[in-house]
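About this split. The held-out portion is used to measure sequence recovery: a designer receives only the structure tokens and must propose an amino acid at every position. Recovery is the fraction of positions where the proposal matches the reference. Here is one held-out target exactly as it appears in the evaluation file.
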């Protein structure tokens, strides 16, 4: 689907309950070789900028606001040349009313995986020896944008899912990304976002395919009640 030329080691197993800092699969293009090589790699879901002194952060980095990503020190270098696609069957979103949070599963209308616009970074752990291969940590984040249409009834933000015609340019490490580039990617995602479907699921606990089974009689497809 993504025309991957190289698969990395220790790719994560399928999961139906991925949490921030878990390992996720990402698609990227490495410019270390010419022509660039499209790779499938395992990355930590919470970006660690290359200048960080430790892995943990005082603020969450598993998502990046598309409106400001090119300006924020944590993300701007990745916007420039380290962009990725994060494949997923779908994602959960919680609609909050008072103290009640209702989970929904959001997915494509044709059942195919989504490709979220992501950013990645390589971070060298200064606490590890120079010759330790584990000293290099690959991490990633997912861009978000304002929700529109029926999805806005669940939550005011959505992950940016790119249509396949936008993948090549988004991944191209030779295309220098800036805020206008990110804004164009978000604009390209809008039509796809309007086709996404959703339905209510049971509380998301544990891990397994049963987590994305719809709740009988629950709200779906554009309904939140």
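Reference sequence for scoring:
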């Amino acid at each position: 689907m993504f025309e991957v030329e190289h698969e990395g080691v220790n790719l994560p197993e399928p999961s139906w309950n991925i949490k921030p800092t878990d390992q996720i699969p990402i698609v990227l293009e490495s410019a270390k070789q010419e022509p660039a090589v499209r790779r499938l790699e395992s990355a930590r879901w919470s970006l660690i900028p290359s200048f960080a002194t430790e892995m943990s952060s005082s603020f969450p980095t598993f998502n990046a606001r598309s409106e400001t990503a090119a300006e924020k020190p944590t993300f701007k270098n990745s916007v420039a040349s380290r962009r990725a696609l994060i494949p997923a069957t779908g994602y959960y979103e919680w609609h909050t009313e008072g103290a009640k949070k209702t989970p929904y599963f959001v997915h494509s209308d044709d059942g195919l995986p989504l490709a979220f616009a992501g950013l990645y970074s390589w971070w060298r752990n200064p606490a590890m020896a120079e010759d330790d291969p584990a000293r290099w940590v690959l991490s990633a984040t997912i861009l978000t944008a304002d929700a529109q249409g029926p999805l806005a009834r669940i939550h005011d933000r959505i992950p940016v899912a790119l249509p396949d015609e936008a993948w090549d340019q988004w991944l191209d490490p030779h295309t220098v990304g800036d805020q206008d580039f990110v804004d164009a990617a978000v604009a390209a995602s809008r039509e796809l976002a309007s086709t996404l479907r959703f339905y209510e699921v049971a509380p998301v606990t544990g891990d397994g395919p049963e987590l994305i089974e719809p709740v009988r009689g629950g709200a779906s497809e554009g309904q939140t009640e």
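Annotator remark: The two ends are 36 Å apart (CA to CA).
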